[in-house]
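Sanity check

After download, print the first record. It should look like this:
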Amino acid sequence: MSQTKTFLLNCWYVVALTSEVSKTPLARTVTGQKIVLYRNTNDAVVALEDRCAHRQAPLSLGEVIGDNIQCGYHGLTFDPAGNCIRVPSQKRIPPGACVHSYPTIEKQGFVHLWTGNRQPTAEEKPFDFPFAAMEGFNARYASLGGKFDYRLLIDNLMDLTHLGFTHKNTIGTGGVAESGKAKTERRGDRVIVTREMENIAPAPTHVEVTGYTGNVDRWQIIEYIPPCFISLQVGNAKHGAGGFNAAAAEKLINRRTLHIATPETESTTHYFWVSTYPSNSMTPDQERTIYEHTMKVLDEDIQMIEGQQKRYDPNFEMIDINEDAGQISMRAALDQLIAEEQKTA
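Expected structure tokens:
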């Protein structure tokens, strides 16, 4: 497995939603590595290199038989450890008849996969987002994708001043960029951006969901966790009620979402998302409205970032503005981790 300059390898990546993996082979590419996923007879997720050891045919075009996967080209069968256990045309298994097997962990609605060239240590665990499985919280998921460098998606999420422009008909409004007070902190490998906006108009989607048309105090707490997780705590309360610290009855919107920008290749990305909120905070109709509008928002972001990728020139001298502090800190943290990994490769 070759090192790259754009993403880490010795770490856990989300490769699929739990609901996406079944006993039908699923092809996925992560950090440029082609992988096939399936469930065995115990319903556990198996992840193997998606390349038969015989003639390099994709195992994802084959068939799951019990705990094993059979290549759809010449019928070679591989067990969950990646060992070839059957060659239909002969009794002898050739030396080296195996494919790489990847460690996987299912957690909180996601399938995490270790892409590194060594086994993870006991301390190296998948990112924990407890709200997705917490009693008293509802959760909704999405699995999307985009034709862009995964870091451009993280850039997008580290600077939410774009809401008033890219999403002006849904979750954006005047004042998100103009009235925000932002603070950026670096805590080890993590980067946290806190934005507070006081006495601004509510976003169109929020008015539709809550019915409240008065001005609000809004907050956005953005946390980047390497390699590609962005945790958001966002919401608003009636103006003057205390903002983030307002009593629950004064909070109109209060959500915790996790955005995951898993690198597929250097120019394509798997985009996974989960939104959570207290079960008693919204009716089913309100929940459905928020979800439908959010899917539109994510599509708008994908469209914008794909346009950015098409024009992206690494030699172009971009300007920076104050709100870029979170992006710049995120890039510095990630670049440092990649450089350290490459030194020890």
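If your output differs, re-run the checksum step. Summary of this record's structure: The CA atoms of residues 199 and 216 lie 5 Å apart.
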